[in-house]
Amino acid sequence: MRNRVALHQAALTLAEKHGLEFTIDDVAGTAGVSRRTFFNHFATKLDAILNCGLNDSHVCYQEAFLAGDFAREGRNVVEELLMMDQELDKQRCLGNGIGWSTRIHDLVLREEKLRQHLWKTIQAERASRIRLVRARYPELDEDTAWLAVRLAESIILFSLENPGPNQDTTHTLLPRPERQRFFYETCTALLQPRAQ
């Protein structure tokens, strides 16, 4: 875990200083690890900047999801996905410090290639989660699994949103889990069939 954080921080710092004009060897050297160690954690320098890509904790949480470890009485598939994401976020943020996500956000806005890579990563992750949901809940069809995954993504994005001065700030006054609950209840209410 320590090497992964060091590599991510090194890639992030190099990208802030040099854009995308640096090599994997630069990242490994800055982090004080070998090139081989880099490839144990990331496939590309773009993955290292974004701190994305499969890792052991990611696989463990997917296995836990399939085993029903996030299931509780009354909890549905969207809530299970949110619980898995919450655990993954704890792992992803570990050791990265305050302001880490803002630094990534600024780079994504600045670098088109990084933005495209992030979009491809999101699409691949979405497809993977749909397969995961279908494996855990074989009775769900493709469209329902897609909807569950997209709803979980929307809740997470909504809970991370920073409103501007003229936007409604009701949801930001609540801690993150309560903001997720607020948005989830709103979405499910909208998705309910309406009485004629």
UniProtKB/TrEMBL annotation:
The protein's name in its UniProt record: TetR family transcriptional regulator
GO molecular function, one term: DNA binding
A Pfam family that the UniProt record links to this protein: TetR_N
Keywords of this entry: DNA-binding
